[in-house]
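In the design runs reported in the main text, the only information available to the sequence generator was the tokenized backbone. The following block is the verbatim input for one such run; it is reproduced so that readers can re-run the procedure and compare outputs position by position.
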């Protein structure tokens, strides 16, 4: 009869520390997103082309001042929408369909930690987007104003709101339905979310509804701060906070892993 002494197995069996697991999963999620051509089209190429095109060609009346001063905050909001909502909803929906989430849920990584890793991946991607779009906007003559902390707060709440809605969609609908619905919402909000077309171009009744949408609140808040140097846009922050709490709570309650 043979016996084994403690420390025989190396590396020691068991899960890695939780922080290391989250970091490794977040790095994997980020690499997968950046290697996906469709995701890059959605998160980088489309916002960049919109910023350059509408800043260079007088297509939409953006009011007084340079067009880029109106467009840059809206395109930053679009970048958040494309990554936190559309991209995350589609990717998570197909991971759920193919059983990836089911298998990951059976690993030592807790489910909440998996969602945390996905959130970190979204934030890293958004930082890259914002840096790229900011450099391009500055090259086009953008002159931003306002408090950077307020901008960060708006972007954080906007990310939470869009992420909660994206996970809710991915966790409740079939993957094909998520793909269609997420892209449709992206296109509709591109037009009606105050990103490219000013909301005051819409009829009063419709405008009052559009102003309550998260991307409209985000683009309006960013525009108030970055274009006009306003203080804290409490109304827009309130709209984003309500969407964040409601979306994340609904996603946590109704998300199905299989």
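Verbatim output:
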């Amino acid at each position: 009869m043979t016996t084994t002494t403690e420390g025989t197995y190396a590396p020691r069996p068991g899960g890695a520390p939780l922080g290391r697991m989250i970091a490794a999963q977040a790095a994997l999620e980020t690499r997968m997103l950046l290697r996906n051509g469709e995701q890059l089209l959605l998160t980088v190429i489309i916002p960049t082309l919109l910023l350059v095109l509408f800043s260079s060609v007088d297509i939409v009346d953006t009011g007084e001042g340079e067009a880029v001063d109106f467009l840059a905050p809206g395109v930053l909001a679009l970048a958040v929408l494309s990554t936190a909502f559309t991209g995350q909803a589609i990717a998570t929906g197909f991971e759920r369909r193919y059983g990836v989430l089911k298998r990951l849920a059976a690993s030592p990584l807790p489910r909440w930690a998996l969602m945390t890793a996905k959130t970190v991946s979204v934030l890293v991607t958004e930082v890259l987007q914002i840096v790229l779009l900011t450099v391009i906007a500055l090259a086009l003559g953008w002159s931003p104003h306002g408090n950077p902390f307020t901008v960060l707060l708006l972007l954080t709440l906007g990310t939470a709101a869009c992420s909660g809605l994206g996970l809710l969609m991915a966790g409740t609908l079939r993957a094909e339905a998520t793909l269609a619905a997420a892209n449709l919402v992206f296109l509709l909000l591109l037009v009606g979310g105050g990103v490219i077309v000013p909301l005051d171009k819409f009829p009063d009744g419709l405008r009052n509804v559009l102003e309550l949408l998260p991307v409209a609140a985000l683009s309006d808040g960013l525009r108030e701060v970055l274009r006009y140097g306003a203080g804290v846009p409490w109304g827009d922050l309130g709209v984003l906070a309500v969407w964040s709490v409601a979306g994340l709570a609904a996603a946590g309650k109704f998300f199905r892993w299989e």
